[in-house]
Design a protein that fits this description.
This protein has 209 residues and is mainly alpha-helical. The protein contains eight helices and two strands, in the order H-H-H-E-E-H-H-H-H-H. The protein has a two-stranded antiparallel sheet. A hairpin with a 5-residue loop joins strand 1 and strand 2 (64-68). The protein is elongated and about 80 Å long. Mean pLDDT is 87; it is low at 186-202.
Length: 209
């Protein structure tokens, strides 16, 4: 998540001070990714170092104000115009957990899947309830519309995760059934062709390490 660009987007609406930026960021995102003031000021210092923002005096309460520079506006436009890179996916704990659970001694992978499915469906119900509340109140400003978009994205993510878990369970059942019915002649000779044996590393997406 780009806190750097999020702060630039808020500063484009006019000068802000640190805690004000934190409040507006969390209002837009429904506190889905909470910030602390230290993160905000650290990011502002780096943006100032890079010429993206300038200090712009103080407000009546003595808060140091920051404003976006032309270089900052150029950086912000570039961010909006450039697609988010999906070729280098971030680490996903659930995918890593299931990958490690396959064949791990003493681990019931179907129980792992069922436990996660229950959690995912509960989260999806909670997000759907939040969406219903947001729609009932009729979003009145850009912050409320922004939060509605975020909560809908969380619902879509939860739906996709639930479908993927169903797929994982079905695949495990098919593999278990096939293993139970196939003769074990290949394993004795050491020449059995295992699924995916011909796959090469070059065909896989790059994974962040």
């Amino acid at each position: 998540m780009s806190i750097r660009h999020g702060l630039l987007a808020l500063l484009e609406r006019g000068p802000r001070y640190g805690s004000q930026l934190r409040t507006e960021f969390e209002s837009r995102t429904g506190s889905t990714w909470p910030l602390n003031v230290g993160q905000v000021y650290t990011t502002l210092s780096r943006l100032e170092r890079d010429g993206m923002v300038d200090q712009d005096g103080e407000d009546d309460a003595g808060h140091a104000l920051y404003s976006i520079t032309e270089d900052g506006r150029t950086e912000l436009r570039s961010w909006f115009e450039t697609p988010v890179d999906r070729s280098n996916p971030p680490r996903d704990e659930l995918a890593i957990k299931l990958a490690m659970a396959v064949g791990a001694p003493g681990v019931d992978i179907r129980a792992v899947i069922q436990s996660q499915r229950s959690h995912t469906l509960k989260a999806m119900q909670d997000y759907t309830r939040l969406k219903a509340q947001a729609l009932a109140d009729e979003p009145a400003d850009r912050d409320e519309v922004a939060w509605l978009l975020v909560v809908e994205q969380l619902i879509f993510q939860a739906e996709a995760e639930a479908r993927w878990l169903d797929h994982c369970e079905s695949r495990l059942v098919r593999l278990a059934t096939a293993a139970a019915t196939e003769p074990s002649t290949g394993s004795a000779s050491g020449t059995a062709k295992r699924p995916g044996a011909a796959r090469t590393a070059g065909t896989r997406p790059r994974i962040r390490r």
